[in-house]
Design brief:
Length: 538
């Protein structure tokens, strides 16, 4: 298609606006919000008469900046969708006109787009929408093969090389990302890198293997930043580092030299090891601890780790049995905990690496729906559920009992990381539960210390006969019950991410990828085995 856009005097802006309004209604633009598709910010120059022809750019937003000789500014933003290879041919434009193309999905997230629909949350059943394309068909899955490592500072072993990538919605592109220090929590893939074979080469970001660490603009001055760059584009020398001094797997403390200038080394700015401090290049100095790094395997096992007893309620019919069987076969989710129990009102054996036979909950598991949010009125069912759990001797001996819904994607190692940081040394905490939402605990994942389980075992009738029982949703009941019994509430808001952002939370994916790339401990809900593993893989 050919689009003609003519600039007019200020007094005739309405004519130009009318032309754009007609273009706005074309079906190609329907994936952008009606009011956002084309914005006319100003037309104050005397005249401009460019012809925009053969716009063959891919899905995205075209921003045209036109500056007249008098230096007045006109800005017109329009969306454009076309097939074919990206190309842009402009006829009749003077050098006073510039064009900026913003790719579709970068534009989608920069404008506040989110993966809210069932299709784009689960990535099953492509509905043809822009939301599905940007949430499910971009970003890939990363490369987290066994050679991935975490680069730790020798000044402080619990801080590692991280990225300060901006959050979704900021509109800041990849090239604005720079290397900083962050806590070495194994559950955060931002810190996973593929190291150069033989010690010399590119340091690739596992989340996006096409991105590498590099020296900004290839400038060798002391203090220049380390940034995230395209591995294949630009000057390759900017992204070449020498880690050979660390040995075959770079585990020994060593300096990381910049190959084009081997007298320059990766350095922690001002030798400050607080998270968020930036990395730079500086003159190599044998005595500088800020220049010594070592590589930690991602699959490391902490010397001390809290033990987890993970439990789930399973409906005897429906998708939950096959979903749990698939998790069990791969040893993931609750089956990666130290101990696992599944409760139902029918005896069923879940096959897998460690087969589990259900413990019986008396009575029906069917519940009505109602209340302000038309949610399950399931307090009585889960009172019976916890009656069985607290009689299991493992709830007395294992550090933490974790109740997880079957449709909740759950990473036990990430929870262990949280607990290690919240409760050093392990096992000395009192009665406590983790509050996963500032509005109050939500039910897809509930985490209690063994002391909290003991206190609930002693005082459960107080809750059942008291004010908490007025609440017919389990999460309302139990959070009020535990408070009544004196169980400490510990706010940990990064252990649950829910669809539709039920706690007004936002994903920590910082590059426009699906929310399941976030660092949270669990994600909910996923109503099919395929959807559950789509999220788990991300």
């Amino acid at each position: 298609r050919t689009v003609f856009v003519a600039g007019c005097r200020v007094g005739r802006v309405a004519m130009l606006a009318a032309t754009l309004e007609k273009m706005e209604k074309q079906p190609q633009c329907q994936n952008y919000g009606h009011s956002e598709e084309i914005r006319l910010l100003a037309v104050e120059h005397e005249t401009m008469s460019p012809l925009l022809t053969n716009l063959g750019v891919p899905r995205g937003r075209l921003q045209m900046l036109a500056v007249a000789s008098a230096a007045a500014l006109a800005t017109v933003t329009m969306c454009w969708v076309a097939k074919g290879a990206p190309k842009l041919q402009i006829a009749g434009l003077s050098d006073s006109v510039g064009l900026v193309f913003v790719p579709e999905c970068q534009d989608f997230f920069a404008r506040g787009g989110a993966c809210r629909s069932k299709q784009s949350w689960e990535c099953v059943g492509d509905d043809g929408s822009q939301e599905y394309r940007c949430c499910c068909n971009t970003g890939g899955f990363g490369d987290f093969s066994p050679v991935t490592g975490i680069i730790s500072s020798e000044l402080r072993h619990d801080v590692c090389v991280d990225l300060n990538s901006p959050y979704v919605g900021s509109g800041v592109p990849f090239y604005a990302n720079k290397a900083v220090l962050g806590l070495c929590t194994g559950g955060n893939p931002n810190k996973h890198f593929h190291l150069p074979p033989g010690g010399v080469g590119q340091i690739k970001w596992a989340s996006h293997p096409s991105k590498c660490l590099g020296v900004r603009d290839g400038a060798s001055y002391v203090g220049n930043e380390i940034t995230l760059q395209d591995c294949a584009n630009g000057d390759p020398s900017w992204k070449l580092f020498d880690m050979a001094a660390g040995g075959a797997e770079q585990k020994a403390p060593h300096r990381i030299k910049w190959v084009p200038h081997p007298e320059k080394c990766l350095d922690i700015k001002d030798a400050r090891t607080d998270p968020g401090n930036s990395l730079q290049i500086s003159d190599c100095n044998l005595g500088m601890g800020a220049q010594l790094f070592s590589v930690i395997p991602v699959n490391r096992v902490p010397e001390a780790k809290p033990s987890l007893f993970c439990v789930a309620m399973m409906m005897p019919a429906g998708y939950e049995q096959s979903m749990l069987a698939a998790q069990s076969a791969k040893g993931v989710g609750i089956f990666a905990c130290d101990e696992t129990a599944i409760l139902s009102n029918v005896s069923i054996t879940i096959p897998g690496i460690r087969p589990v036979t259900t413990q019986l909950v008396p009575g029906s598991l069917q519940v009505p729906y109602g209340g302000k949010w038309h949610s399950a009125l399931n307090t009585d069912v889960f009172i019976r559920f916890w009656d069985v759990v607290i009689q299991d001797p493992r709830s007395n001996t294992i550090s933490w009992t974790v109740k997880v819904d079957p449709d909740c994607v759950f990473f036990p190692d990430r929870l262990r990381d949280v607990l290690i940081h919240e409760y050093p040394p392990i096992g000395e905490t009192g009665p406590a539960y983790l509050n996963n939402c500032f509005l109050g605990m939500h039910g897809p994942i509930e985490v209690l210390s063994k002391q909290a389980v003991a206190l609930y075992r002693q005082g459960k009738e107080t809750c059942r006969m008291g004010a908490p029982y007025a609440h017919k949703q389990e999460d309302f009941f139990f959070r009020e019950c535990w408070q009544l019994l004196g169980i400490a509430k510990v706010d940990v808001f990064n252990i649950l991410l829910e669809s539709n952002y039920a706690c007004t939370e936002r994903p920590t994916t910082r590059d426009g990828r699906h929310p399941c790339f976030s660092r949270q401990v669990s994600f909910h809900p996923f109503k099919s085995t395929e959807a559950w593993f789509q999220c788990h893989k991300r």
